Each structure stands twice: as C-alpha cells, then as structure tokens.
Amino acid sequence: MQRWPVLLFLAWVCFLFFAGIGLFMSGFLLTRIELAHSSSCSDPLTPPPWDRQSLPPGSCWMPQRFSKAVLVIIDALRFEFAWFNPANVSPLPYENKLSFLHHLATSQPRHARLYRFRADPPTATMQRIKGLTTGSLPTFIDVGSNFATYAIQEDNLLAQLVQNGRKVVFMGDDTWEGLFPKKFFRSYFFPSFNVKDLHTVDDGILQHLYPTVDGGEWDLLIAHFLGVDHCGHKHGPVHPEMAKKLTQMNEMLRSLVDHLGNDTLLLVAGDHGMTETGDHGGDSEKEVNAALFVYSKTPLFGTGPPEEPEAVPQVNLVPTVALLLGVPIPYSNIGEVMAELFPGDGDALSAALQQLSVYHVNAKQVDRFLHSYSLVAQDLPAEQLQHLQEIFSTAVEEHVQLLAQMQEAVLVFPELESRLGNLISRFQLYLREARAVCTQTWARFHPLRMVAGCTLIAASCLLCYVTSELATASDSFYRSCLLYPLLWGLVVAVLLGLACTFIQEGLDLLLVSSWAAAVSQVAFFWRWWGRQPKRARVASSQPPLAAIGLRQRLRAWLGLAFPMGILLFRCGAMFSDSFVVAEARVAPFLLASLVVLLVGKLHWDGRLTVPEGPKQQLLGFSSYRKESWYLLYLVAVLLVCLRLSIFFHQCREEIPQCRPSLFIAPLASLRNTRAKNLFYLLCVASLVGLVFVVRCWLRHYGNLNSSDPLVLFVRWGFPLVVICIACYWAVASSAEDSLGKLQELVQVALVAFPWAVYGLVSVGLLLLLCNPMTVFAKDTRESAGPIVTPYLGVPSSEVDFLHVIPQIYRRMQESLKSRLERGSCKATVAAYGLGSVYSAALVIALTLLGFLLLLLHSERLSLAFLLLFLEAFVLLHIHTRARSLAGDAEPFSVPWHAVISWLLAASQFFYSTGHQPIFPAIHWNAAFVGFHLDHSTNLLPAVLVGANTFASHILFAVSCPLLLLWPFVCETPSSQRRKPKKDAQEELQEEEEHMMEMRLRESPERFSAALLQLGLKYLFILGMQLLACVCATMILRRHLMVWKVFAPKFLFEALGFVVSSICLLLGISLVMRVDCAVSTWFSQLQLRSEPRLKSCRLLWGTSDTSFCLLMLKSPLQKHGNLVPSVPSWGSRVAGSYVMEKSGSPASITGSDPRFLLRQKFEVRLKKNKI
Amino acid sequence: MKEAEIKRLLAANLLCVFSIILTTTVPAFFLDSFSVLGTHLTWLCICSVSISALNIVLCLVLKPNPSPKRSSFAHKISRFLKCCIYFFMSCILFHVIIVLYGAPLIESVTETFLFAVLLSTFTTLHCLCMLGPNIQAWIRVFSKNGAMSIWDNSLQITTMCSILGAWFGAFPIPLDWDRPWQVWPISCSLGATFGYMAGLIIAPLWIHWNQKQLTYKSR
Prior knowledge:
The complex is a heterodimer of chains A (1170) and B (219).
Chain A: H1 3-28, E1 31-33, E2 68-74, H2 79-82, H3 99-107, E3 112-118, H4 125-134, E4 141-143, H5 157-163, E5 168-173, H6 175-179, E6 186-190, H7 200-215, E7 220-225, H8 227-235, H9 240-259, E8 264-269, H10 285-288, E9 289-296, E10 311-313, H11 317-325, H12 348-376, H13 382-408, H14 413-442, H15 447-469, H16 475-503, H17 509-541, H18 543-572, H19 577-581, H20 583-604, H21 614-619, H22 626-645, H23 673-700, H24 709-733, H25 743-770, E11 776-779, H26 797-822, E12 828-832, H27 837-856, H28 862-886, H29 896-912, H30 939-949, H31 951-958, H32 962-969, H33 972-976, H34 984-993, H35 998-1002, H36 1004-1035, H37 1042-1088, H38 1090-1100, E13 1108-1111, E14 1119-1120, E15 1123-1124, E16 1137-1140, H39 1153-1169
Chain B: H1 2-25, H2 27-30, H3 40-62, H4 73-100, H5 109-131, H6 135-141, H7 150-169, H8 186-209
C-alpha cells in the first residue's frame, strides 16, 4: 500500500467525523453575535409629536410614566402556579396558592393583570436573566468581545437605568452578581448553587425586602426568589413543600403591596416554567409557560381584562419597562412593547395615538438593531430582512402622513380611528415578524439535524472499527473502499452545489458536506458488504479452518472485553453530570485500572512467571521472571505519575470544597520571594531535565552523531530554547516589582523572548520537515584518496608535523580497526541511529511542540509537562514489555488496550495541565504570550489559546505512531543476554534481532497498513468518546445541567476531537516523511557505490541490490563531527548498522537469512554447474 | 470425597457470611449508637477482627492444606511471625495502592488504613491461612491452571470478588446524591464486603457446577 492512500483515507474519515460534528452543532448550538452598541437619550428615534403631546424635559424617547418599579422574579413560576381557579375544589399542591394575585386582579381590574409569560428556550436561569434585561434571545454562545467573564456586555435595562442616573437595588440569586458587576446601587446576594437548599435565598430576601422598600433609596428594585425552583428540582411540583413555598410567596406579595407607593409599578414574573419532574432548560410547553403579573396603585389599563389571560413573549417586558420608566430601550431589544400599558389620557383616540407613537419608537429601535446586526453577521436570512424593511418603511411613512393630516384636521373621527387601528396592527405585524425571524435563527433546536449528526458520527465509528479489523487486507480493498466512496461523495457534493446554484439558493456548505459524507459512507458500507459474502464462502469451503477461525475470533473477543469494558465505563461516565464534573479523577482511575488489569491478565495467563521446569512443577511453586519485575516497577511508576498528576487540577464551581492547585497561578502572583525563587529554579530544572533526558535518549540510540542541521539544532538549539524560556519566565514572574527605568526593557523582553522561542521552534520544525534523517553514515569503503590533506598554513616543519601526524595516526587506526572487525577486504557502511530514525524524528518534534506548549502555560505547569513526558514514556515501555511477555506474534498491530490507555492519558493530562471543560477555566493569558495586549486578528489568539487548552491532546495525538514504533526500538535489550555465546548461529540470531525499525522497511506495505490501522483505532476511540458526549447532550438537553455541564463538555470534546485528529494526521505524515527520506537515503547510498554494485551482479548474477544490515558489535566511537564526545568506550551503540555489499561469501554470514540461503543456494548451483 | 469437601467448603463459607451479617447487628446491643454507616470505623474494626478470628479458627479446624511435616515449635513460631509481618505489609501495600488510585493523601488516613486492613483481611489473610507465608505458592494459585484443590479455587474467587467489589464501590462516590454511604471509604468497604460475601457464596456453587472440568494436579 502506498503512503498517499493511507493519509487520504484517514483524512476522509476525519472529514466524516467533522461533518457529523458540524451537523450536530448546527442543530444544538445556537449562536448569536453580541453588539457592543448601546442606546442613548439623544438617539434620533423619537416619534413625530402630535398636537397634545410633547416630551417633558428630563425623559427619554417617551415621557416617564412611573418613577419607580419593583421587579419580583420568582424563579420557575409556571403560569399554572399563579393562575387562580375558584371552581377548582381539590387543587394540586401548586394550584390556587397565589390567591392574592387573583384578589387584586378581580377587585381592581384596571390596576392589575395576569399574563402568560412565554419564555424563549434555552430556559436556563442565566439565559433568561439575559433575556429579561437585554430584550434579546440569548443563545448558548453569545459571541461577544470578552469570553472570560459571564458579565453581560450587551446594552441592557440595568445599564440604561444606571446610565440615566437611576438607582438599582438587587436582592436574591447571586447569578446576577456575575452578570451585572458593579451595576447595583446596593445588593444582597445569596448563594444559588445548592439546589437542595430551599430557604436561604428567600429568607435572606425577606429579611431585607421591606426595610429597603420603605427606605426609598431606589428606582428599580429587583428581588429574585429561588425557593420555588429549588423546590421543583428537589421534590417536583406536586409536593406539599411546593404548596408551602407558594403560600410563602403569596404572603410576601401581600405585604409587599402594602409597602408600595402610588408611583410604583409592581411586576411579578417567572423566568421560566418547569416540567412535571421539576426540571427546565428545554422548550416544552410547561417549561416555556411562565407567569407575569402587573400591578400599580394608579390605574394602569384603559380597558378591562380579557377573558383568557393574554400570552406575552418574555422579551416584551424590556421595552415596556424601559419606556414606562422613561429610559431608552436597550439597543439589542427585539421585544414588542405592551401597548395596553400606555393608555394615554383616557379617551380612545389619545390612547391610540399614544400607542402608535410607542410602537413607532419600538419599531425604529428594532429596525436599527436588525440593520446593524445584519452588517456584522449573516445568519439572518436576507430576503426576510428585506421584507421586514418594506413593512417598516411603509408603516413609518404612513404614520408621518397621518400625523400631518391630523394637524391639518382633514380626517374625521371614524376614518381616523380605522386608519389608526390599521397602522397599529401594521407596526405589530412588523415587530412580531422581526421577532419570529430572530427566534427562528437563534432559539430553536433542530432535532433532525441533531439526530443526523449523531448517526453520522456513529456510522463513522463503525467504519473505523470495521476497517481497523481488516488492516491486513489487500491493496485492492482500500482502493475500492476508498476511491469509490470518495468519488461518490464528490459527485453528490458537486450535484448539490449545482442544484443550489440553479435554484438560486444560498449554498449551505455544511449541508452539502454532510450529504457528501453520508453518501460516501453508504458507498463504503455497500462495498464492504459486497466483499463480505465472498469471504464467508471461502470460509465455508474449508470447514475446519472456519471452526478454528471462530474459536480464534471468540478468544479475540474475550481479549477485547477488558479494554472495551474500560472504554464503555468511560463513555458511560459522559451521561452523568456528576461524572463529567469528576472526570479529572475518573480518567486516571480508569487508566490505572486498565494497566493493572493488563498486568493481572498477563499474570493469570502465567506469562510473568518463569516457565515451569520439572522441579518447580513438583513443588508447585512459581516465581517471577526478571522482565516481569521490570514491568511491575513500570506499573508502580505509572501509578505514582497518575497520583501526582492530580495535584495539578483546576477547580469547578460545582465542587465547592475544592481548592485549585497552586501550580496553576503564575509565579508573578507569589508574594514570598524565596518561594518564588525556589519554584523558578524547580521549573527551570524540570525544563533542563526534559532536554537532558531527550538528548540522552537520542544519544543512546546513536541519533546524535551526524552533523546534519537537524542534529546540530538538537545539540545547540534545544539549550538555546531552554535559555529563552527560562529568561522569559524570569522576566514575566518579576515584571511587577521591577524598577521604573527598567520597565521599557522588561516590556521589550516580554515580547522578545517568546518570539525567540517561536522562531527557534519553527526553525526546528522546518529542519525536521526538510531533512528528518538523524543518521550518521560512516563509509569505510572509499579508503582511497589522499591520506594526508596538505597543510595550507605557514610552511614550518614543526607545525606541518603537528598537522600531519594525527591524520596519519587516525587513518592507520581506522584501517586497522576495519580489518580487525571484518576480516580482510571488506567495505562497509556503518549507519548510526538508523534503527530509530522514525522515533527520533517524532521525539524531536514532540520536544519542540512541548517547548511551545510549555511557554503558553504558566511557569509551574512545566512540572506537569515533565510528568506527561515521563508517563508517556512509561506507558510505551509498559506496552512494549507486556507485548514481549505475552509473546505477541503480530508486531505490526497495536493492541486496543495500548490505544485506549494512550487516549485516557491524553484526557488525564488535559485536566492535569490545569484545564476544565468550562469557559471560565480557559487560560486566556496564553493569548498574550509574546504579544502586548493587542491583536489585529482574532485568529492568532484563538490558535494560542487553543494550543494551550488542548496541549495534551496535541502531544498525545502527534506521538501516537510511537505506539507502533516503540516495540521495534526496544528490541535490543532482549538480545543482550546472548552476547557471551559467540557461535555463529547465535550471532546470526542476534544480528537478526537488531534490525529495530528497519524491520518496518522490510515490508513497506504492511508498514503503511499498520499506520492506517493505528490511526483508525485512535480515531475509533476518540470517536466513541465523542459519540457518548453527543448522545448525552442530545438526550439530556432538558437536564438542569445541560448548559452548565453537558454543553461545554460537548464543545470541548468536539474541539478536542478536531485538534486530536488533525494532529494525528500530522504525526502520521511526519512518519511517512521520514520514510521517504530513508528511501532516498538508501538510493543515494546505492548510487554512490555503483561500480561495486556491478561487481556484485557479476559475481552473483542477481540484480538484487538489497542491503545486508549488520550490527557492529565492537565498541564504536560515538561520533559527533568526528569528535569522540562520549568517554565510555565500552558502551553499546544500539541501532547502528553496517551495510555491506561486497562480494566474498564470508561477509554475508550476518545478513538476512532468507537472502543468505538463496545466495548460498545459488553458489551451490554454480558450483554444481562448474 | 470431592462432594464432601465441597460441603465443608460451603459450610465454612456460609459461616463467614453469617459472621459478617452478625457484625452488623450484634454490636448494636453492646455499643450505643452503633450503625454500619454512622460509626463506620468501629464496624470496620469489628468486622476485620471477627473475620480474621473466624478464618484462623476455620483454618485450624479444617486444615485445607496440611502444613509441611517439619513442624517444631520454633518453626511454628517463626511461621506465625512471618504471617504477621506479611499481613502488616499487605495492609501497607493496600494503603499505598488505594492512595495511588486517588484516595486522599493526608486527610482521613485512619479511614483509608482501616479500609486497607479490611481488604487485607478479605484477601491476604485468607491466602495466609490457606497457603502459609509462601509468596511463590500465592503466585502459583493466582494463575490460570494454578489451583490444586477446591480450596484454592475458592480462594481465587473470593479474592477477586472482594477486590472487584472494592473497585466498583468507588463508582458512586462522585455522584451528587448526598447519601451518607457515599462518604469515603464507606462505599468502597461496603463494596468489598458485598463482593467478599458474593465470592463466598459463588465459590462452592461454581465448583459444584464445574466439578467435571476441575482436575487438579497432584502434588
């Protein structure tokens, strides 16, 4: 299999997943852009005045009707709770409890009225508060200028009041504190988080409510009661507690009304309803149907109440209250004013004129908002906006005309009245349609899209699984299963695109791509199914084989049960909000369990014990092998790593007793200088340790010998990067207490050092891409040439000698050595570090990425990164050991448990680098590493913050191919034991075992297939996690915690998937790049020795030019630029090869046995012929 | 022969189960305000002590694995001391493993340690009674074909069930139900206890059903 199809296949699978995620997101997540504009009194929105009406001084837009207002929000006050039905003789616990409202409404019909208050989904308290104050439809993500706080950035009622010098007093739910920081004249916040607590908030409010009302130092008083909502969550609506709670509210309202003055408007509102189980968050009738009650001691309404209570959308409250209190309507309001609250001076005509002018202001404001919104975002459909614009302009024109005609008094009364009524209904139509357009785009789930997205993801998971099980299948399979689906998908995409352009509809890229994905998937499964019967037939023709196959398959299934069980637990944990909250502890727990289970299973199978000799069998005793102890040590280290990683966790607000790790705060925040210095040293030490360990590893495998730019970069660039990072940390952590004169210098350094790191890391990555070979080839074939290079300096005999003698000495040494090693006339190429080229490139890339990500985190998290590298290393070793102990015959396939543990470690370190899947926990500081608080585009900070957030996903995904490579790299130690024996057979075996990663090159087909299989397994497990998350979000979209826990978790998981899959592709393509480089390197070597090759052919009569790889056994000088850099002569250089291609039969003894046998055979043939 | 031995095993195991049930009820008569959940530590101590006493007595009475012939008094003493040391070490080891699995490091050390003692009682003490202080024998018993008698099989099953029970016991801890038994380590110790009891009951039944397949190597 070629390299490109592998990448193409993986990219295609990623595309399938992305399409699924996109489809689901478009159905679930409703986004909207927040506008930063705000209204002011001077805005030219005032309606044309009519004869009897002019604005009194000091009021905005409309004359102020009430100087004060009390807004009582009873959380989750469903309409049925407030509705009083005297005919109901046996009321449920929540029915007929607010009798006082009924009393007011019946005794003073022109003072009080009850409405159905229609909340817009999502019916979560925070979104509702936003809606009740901004007058718009908040979605889950309001894309605003600042992500870091929950504070409302948009123009809102409170901001308008404060702007116009009014005093706002608040008491109750502390959610408001975060939403409106510093807006309140006075406030009494009470904790809202504990749903089980029914009374703290309400009692707290009652304690302060009446004194505050009597004190009179307020213009708007908001009291947010939570008891009813909490009672619903705890007991449900049908419970005696609910009756008590509602009775308490009734009493509260009764005494509150006694305290009110004549100029005060009282509003009692529920922010949302609740279902029969007491939950809310979704869009069902019971959740959406809240109650609104309006009352004032002065008459409010011109007419009596209607038979049935009117339904009022929640957003309508905002313009109404704003105009009644005489402040401008908030800029982004899309609500329609409640006109019956503006009855004018009493007669019908003035009421109509007054209402018309109110509508006029309202319509102008909505039009202004729609106009500026459509400039910023394109999600509102253009033709509908056009339509709205037409209604609006004709209505406004006619209004002006009408007023002009009234001035001239050409109109008689009945005609005037009908025209006024007509105009009012046209304004109403405009406002309602505008709101409907917005609702359609912002506030509705698309269940069909959600289900389709879910199905697409599930099908992609299945595809991954099916294909990864077939990885050893033939080339043609991939061609048919990749090419045709791709073609089908492309055809469908093109057809859909053409259709869209023909119908002149806007091209919805998402829909087109998801259709393409679905069709290509169906094509794949069809192809795959078409191949299935063929195999079955083959199997049935050979019954015994089939039976064996069945048994083997059964055993394989049993083996799969353990890792898949752990995966099942992990996915199941996504469905519980508690487990999502506790995931930081769940991931290490499951990882530890998986690894311990693996070791336990090895033990159970008797793989860890010494094979039983007759003596031991007699005694019934067993003891562990040496390797088993090594494995157990590794597991112990892993467990310690897992436990240590818990110390780096960030907290969520759901766990109040949690204290955030002290490692997350930047060093600059430390007051104690000594502790600061100590921590700084520790961080630098961990950084240096990381580099040191990586260099040791590279040197051990002989990858530090060549003088290629990349190796030079590893030698000199790495320390330089470390120095830069250390300097940056030093400057950043002491930035505050530096002297005034140094301030400028410090500012420059704060920018310069990160940029130096960025530059160095990108140079390193570029070098890695250009020439990823870290192999040093020592060619001893061309021993010809000048023995002594002429000295070019000043001719003086003594200096000349000093120059010449070492050269002669070295030459003699070399020739002597080569003769000692390889017998007589042998020409060899020694390649240092060839056995670990792939891993070395990956390790270098990982270290570079690690530096970059370290820089973006706060200083002390470098310890967590050190832990990450250590844990990854230990995990790789555990899997290698476990594999060799289990005697796995299939070296090209990575077992499932390895992949699952790799992904568990990735999500474990997501938490251990100080992250949580909630928005307030994002490290926004990362956007300003190397930048001075200004970004021209949004892309760069997004990339920086994304890299910070998904650091562990990136590192683990890029290093995923190591799971395949590591067992090959670790081959060497197993053969060490045999060293003492020197006989030829042993030598042969030993040399065979030293092929390391070159074994992968022996069968390039299988290498590519193995990479594909690994990638698919990784994507499968990632996809399963994502699928669980998506399903949880979809099923639990009415859950209390959906916007707090599940939706953010889904977002982080989806983004993590995207990042991981892209990084996985990058990692695999890096390995393929190295593969290409190795190929060219081999061919260059071949070219260089063309004449000798001819002799080879002459001698053997074969055109086979494959190289024979031999291990050099004798101590080698570790070569770096011809300087023996390591004093230890006796140490082994693993992975160094000698390539030889000369002719004498003796020299081939150490080569590949098959090759050897064939050649021996040929020799014999020739001899016989002769 | 086998049938009789299975019956003895069943009787012994049922005795163990019964004694665990007794430890939850009987102390309430002697101690004020005793309950498994309320005074969990007391129950842990009582349960560990009574189960170990019962196990030792059973071991002496039933003699599942006759000890080696050489049994001087000094040898017995050294054997006993070795057993004590092993038990203590296993408590420490369990404690360390529990902490590594995520238990609090500094807070509630007593709880964690007593839980470790309970686990050791269910697992290590059983092994010590059956096999003596002989690690090689332990390693042999806990492998696929290592069981040499039905007692060994029973040991395998009860040990695995206890540990599995303790593992599953950790699952309810993060849930926000606010139940008293969700407090560390109550759910885990209860899980271990239920696992142990389940193992005690399952073991004879399993052996009975798989009688034909079970062929033990002779010593």
